[in-house]
């Protein structure tokens, strides 16, 4: 892949990415029929824009959406930054308990997770009146979306990012959690080049037994598996793996292969007839073979995350080792660009 992409291609790609984002209400969030318990021991802090002294001072808003906003907090005594998600008020159709369960869901999914490629969740804070809820999380400053857009990383760096994403997802799947909304906006990088998966608002626990199916497609259509778009129920773990393939393709080509994996889409239809149409860059044949093993139309035929990690570690002539084994200079240019362009 060329070290830089044309501005027109970038503009087209990121325009597609923004316009194709499509979230839908689904019946297995927080879980497929589950109702998570709510701990009142962590629900004693009044909010209204103030989460108390434990997490420092609010600096600025990082992002805002329909259901929540995320603010940056700084704790001077420990020199720590935190991302604090504040959920907006309950919908008219929600009871107070339903609203609390929806807000608590992400904390319930992530509170016990411990992996360097998964964002850490520290606390769930609820007002006494149960009208405001906040989630306190680890802050990672750099969006992979912006990194691809601005820093235009090279082949080996992109594969290092991808390996870290796969490692995080492998950990989630080992813990019977499907993310269901993998996309560049939901991948962040810290100041050491460590990539982290964020935003578990649509994640759900699919096991261990009995294995539960996901219900309803969520996320950005271009990354959603064909079975999630065409069926009411589908395997969330295997659908995540499809999204990995589209994610890697988009990181390599600065574009999506199609806007949606539907029969009505001409690009997807061409892929079904001849998967070789995806090969568009000078990346190694082994990388394209890997993408082909991920983007299998039959979900059970897709390569698993642990097998992807094995293949990345055996690529020739340049294997993709775990991030801890990466030479320090691999991410030096990207980190310097990020530090200069994306100041706190």
UniProtKB/TrEMBL annotation:
InterPro entries: Kinase-like_dom_sf (IPR011009), Prot_kinase_dom (IPR000719). Gene3D superfamilies: Transferase(Phosphotransferase) domain 1 (1.10.510.10). Pfam families: Pkinase. Keywords: ATP-binding, Kinase, Nucleotide-binding, Serine/threonine-protein kinase, Transferase. SUPFAM superfamilies: Protein kinase-like (PK-like). SMART domains: S_TKc. Residues 1-11, 30-47 have a biased composition (Polar residues). Residues 1-47 are annotated as: Disordered. GO terms for cellular component: nucleus. The keyword Nucleotide-binding applies. The keyword Kinase applies. Residues 56-315 form the Protein kinase domain. One of its GO terms (molecular function) is ATP binding. Residues 18-29 have a biased composition (Low complexity). PANTHER family: CELL CYCLE SERINE_THREONINE-PROTEIN KINASE CDC5_MSD2 (PTHR24345:SF0), SERINE/THREONINE-PROTEIN KINASE PLK (PTHR24345). This is Serine/threonine-protein kinase. It comes from Wickerhamomyces ciferrii (strain ATCC 14091 / BCRC 22168 / CBS 111 / JCM 3599 / NBRC 0793 / NRRL Y-1031 F-60-10).
């Amino acid at each position: 892949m060329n070290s830089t992409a044309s501005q027109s291609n970038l503009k087209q790609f990121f325009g597609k990415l923004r316009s194709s984002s499509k979230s839908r209400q689904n019946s297995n969030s927080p879980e497929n029929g589950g109702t998570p318990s709510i701990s009142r021991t962590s629900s004693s802090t009044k909010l209204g824009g103030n989460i108390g002294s434990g997490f420092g001072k609010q600096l600025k808003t990082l992002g805002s959406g329909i259901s929540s906003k995320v603010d940056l907090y700084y704790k001077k005594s420990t020199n720590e930054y935190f991302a604090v998600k504040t959920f907006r008020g309950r919908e008219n159709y929600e009871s107070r308990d339903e609203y609390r369960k929806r807000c608590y869901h992400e904390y319930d999914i992530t509170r016990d997770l411990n992996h360097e490629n998964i964002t850490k969740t520290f606390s769930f804070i609820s007002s006494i009146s149960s009208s405001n809820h906040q989630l306190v999380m680890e802050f990672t400053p750099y969006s992979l979306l912006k990194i691809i857009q601005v820093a235009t990383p090279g082949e080996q760096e992109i594969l290092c990012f991808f390996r870290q994403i796969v490692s995080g997802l492998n950990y989630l799947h080992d813990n019977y959690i499907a993310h269901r909304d993998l996309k560049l906006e939901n991948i962040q990088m810290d100041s050491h080049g460590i990539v982290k998966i964020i935003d578990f608002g649509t994640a759900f626990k699919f096991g261990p037994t009995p294995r539960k199916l996901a219900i309803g497609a969520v996320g950005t259509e271009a990354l959603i598996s064909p079975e999630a778009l065409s069926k009411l129920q589908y395997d969330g773990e295997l659908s995540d793996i499809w999204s990995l393939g589209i994610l890697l393709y988009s990181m390599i080509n600065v574009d999506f292969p199609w806007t949606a994996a539907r029969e009505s889409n001409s690009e997807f239809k061409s892929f079904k007839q001849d998967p070789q149409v995806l090969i568009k860059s000078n990346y190694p044949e082994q990388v394209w073979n890997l993408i082909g093993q991920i983007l299998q139309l039959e979900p059970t035929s897709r390569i698993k995350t642990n097998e992807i990690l094995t293949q990345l570690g055996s690529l020739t002539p340049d294997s993709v080792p775990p991030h801890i084994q990466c030479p320090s200079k691999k991410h030096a240019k990207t980190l310097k660009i990020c530090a200069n362009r994306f100041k706190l």
